[in-house]
């Protein structure tokens, strides 16, 4: 009986959390009588009770009871599940307050508000904890079913991972995958681009075109290579073909070809794990793989039908060439990660002799991945992809540099820890071999790419005499904190503090009036162009000093500036809608662009496809993937007999490798860049590297996990 009462209370708390919203705290000045004020506080705390809430509470109570019966969740709750549920619940509660008032008054403004926030947090926590338990339970059950079924093509014994789809689906993805994926994407992207002819524009791209057309000075505010590409093709169309629209359309074709090829490459690489050896010579002889065919279909459908992909494919914007290079970078990083972790080929379970690792790693069956590229070619492509990342966006260089440092440090620390645990074995210092391979296949080529990309960028800027970008571009978050501080405590500034701020930003009153909680551009526009290095140092000193006077203001400015990157409840704009630009955006026929906007809005409102555009969902997915990688760190890897010098071969246990978690560092660095960016503002383009690569990384990790054999989560 006690257990069922608990389920009922949990269901009520979950329904309360889902149904109630945080509001501004009641203002005592509006309630002359104390009793009325207390009544308003109680009403705010209890929220609105209705029959739909009762039905939801009853449904959630049944869900809690059923899920515990199925997964025995009460007996098995890893600490990591609890931490994730706490983090996700806190994000949702804080997000409600920040959306409502741009600060945390809805939580800490009154005792009633705080009590309500605690109840909502508790309800979300219980619900999310149980959902996490069910999620991982279903994942484990799916992995446990991967043996004993027959292959969908050959009828031979295989695993369910290789034959998860129908025979028709398996045959479709077993050969010529890149071309098929590429062609299917163009079936959607091509018509959308034609409807949007010559292409949808954002304000940034028009500023870049003006630089090439001579209407604005050439600067490094935008990546010069992309400015030359987009503006140059547009100008070519205007001067040679007599139409800037045709020139812009030529650029859009180049952008879309690059973007489509990047997306198709992810499907092609994953198909090599689902159907090892497919497409090698004659008809594909499909053997047991490590991914179901339906996962490839699902990934392809995500690329084709989620509005953000076709929308951005038809939009002229620097972020698409950049993210295309980033996708290639992540695909090659995962392939090279496997190459650095495996010193030999062959499947120990099948009794095959190991073979030298001259190509990309084998799958679990001992068959070569059908991207049968030489290591030299992989490294060349890896360097070129990183150079593209650097040249196509100004934040590409810091992204790669910080990612390289973090990945290298983690590999070195893991190797050091492993060697310490093996000092008593006969193979002392054996870990150096694998670390050396990883460093040579990833760190050294990355360093070469960074140097070459930086040199190319500097050379291009010097040859074109482009003006250097100003310091304000990297100070979005500090300037937002300062502007919010000035709105509240401008009268407390000392003469020295006022001078320190005005030396870089001009009049403090104007700076305070320009503050917008969700976008830093209005304040950054006040930047004094001739500010010296001493002026910047003086401002940063004032910025740091003001924090200790009123830290709460800085925290509020920080949270409201970044919460959109974490909260799945924050909706994004479907499409850039710029008007009154010299280049006509009328579309293929009159009203075509309006029709596209209508379609995207309807898809976002009446279908679940819009959720795949919310950055917070991908941030949660990144945290979940990291958690799963860390849970499996003791058992994941690409297990090949004597493949890893970090393992003690004398122990007689199956070899395992370094975990794959370091490959996620570029995504976490991207998240940091998002937090430091000037705007969320409903357009999540800064997060495209996370959004457009996370589905591939999830499937790649699942494949690597299944290649490692039966798994037991680390405690």
Brief digest:
By secondary structure, this protein is an all-alpha fold.
Describe the structure.
With 715 residues, the chain is an all-alpha fold. 62% of the residues lie in helices and 2% in strands. It has 28 helices and six strands. The chain has helices at 2-19, 34-46, 51-71, 79-101, 105-108, 111-144, 167-172, 177-195, 203-213, 224-240, 244-274, 293-305, 307-313, 319-341, 375-392, 396-421, 431-464, 476-489, 495-505, 508-513, 521-524, 533-549, 551-562, 592-606, 615-631, 665-676, 688-691, 694-707; strands spanning 147-150, 157-159, 200-201, 315-316, 344-345, 355-356. The strands form three sheets. The chain has a two-stranded antiparallel sheet with strand order 1-2. α3 runs parallel beside α6 and α11 runs antiparallel to α12. The longest helix is centred in the first third of the chain and has 34 residues, at 111-144. The chain is globular, with a radius of gyration of 28 Å.
Strand order of the largest sheet: 1-2
Rounded to the nearest angstrom, the radius of gyration is: 28 Å
Low-confidence stretches: 147-165, 279-288, 343-368, 635-658
Total count of strands: 6
The major pleated sheet works out as: 2 strands, antiparallel
Shape estimate: globular
N→C terminal distance: 32 Å
Structural class: mainly alpha
Instruction: Give the integer mean of the pLDDT values.
Output: 81
Total of DSSP H or I helical runs spanning 4+ residues:
28
Beta-strand residue percentage: under 5%
Helix percent band: 55-70%
